[in-house]
Amino acid sequence: MAPKLAVLAVLASLLGAVSCELRISLYAGYGFPPPNPNQPFKLPPASPPKNPRPDLKVGYYAAKKCPQAEEIVKRAVEKATPGEKAGLIRLFFHDCFVEGCDASVLLAGPETERTAFPNLSLRGFNIIEDAKAALEEECKGVVSCADIVAFAGRDASCSLSDGKINYDVPAGRYDGKVSRANDTLNLPPPFGDLKLITYMFAAN
């Protein structure tokens, strides 16, 4: 009996060490130190407010010879699984929170946003690619990936809420050509409380 207890004690200590290391790496990956219950969380510096885009318009592609753009994206989203639809909402959020809604999160390559720790679990890229392929057949070179991500986020929200969440999406975004992994450090961490999340949204 004693040897079995000794083995269990060793395993427990090893598992504790692993979970501790994992927790520390998780916080470090988001650019935040591990929380200290004896020390209040220090809020990050606020970013200057971004100017609105007056050139974005609802129904933008109706005048760009691609009136079916939003419907084509919607059909691609409808084929997605519930998990992929939730992933599309998160994908849109992670794209917009880093330097605006420019689809820079889609860019592949070393040290891009897509390779950053907070984005390693992102889903829905395949749905965006399917929508883009369908749009290229309908109206080649017209609809930006940034608008596809925005439409898909809206359509996924509508589908998962059984139509309770639905809204018009102004379009006319340009695709970003720069994507840096370090820029994701301003994303709200999954362990943030309401005060921190509200502050970070207001700062952006």
Explain what this protein looks like in three dimensions.
- The protein has helices at residues 2-29, 69-78, 82-97, 125-138, 145-160, 194-203.
- 26% of the residues are buried.
- Helix 2 (69-78) runs antiparallel to helix 4 (125-138).
- It is mainly α and 204 residues long.
- The longest helix is centred in the N-terminal third of the chain and has 28 residues, at 2-29.
- The model is unreliable at 1-27 (pLDDT under 50).
- It is globular, with a radius of gyration of 21 Å.
Write the H/E string, N to C: HHHHHH
Largest sheet: none
Total strands: the figure is: 0
Structural category is mainly alpha
Report strand %.
under 5%
Mean pLDDT: 81
Give the low-confidence spans: 1-27
Shape: globular
Query: In DSSP terms, counting alpha (H) and pi (I) runs of 4 or more, how many helices?
Result: 6
Task: Please give a quick description of this structure.
This protein has 204 residues and is an all-alpha fold.
Summary keywords:
disordered N terminus
Secondary structure layout plus pairing:
Elements: H1 2-29, H2 69-78, H3 82-97, H4 125-138, H5 145-160, H6 194-203
Helix pairs in contact: 2-4, 2-5, 3-5, 4-5
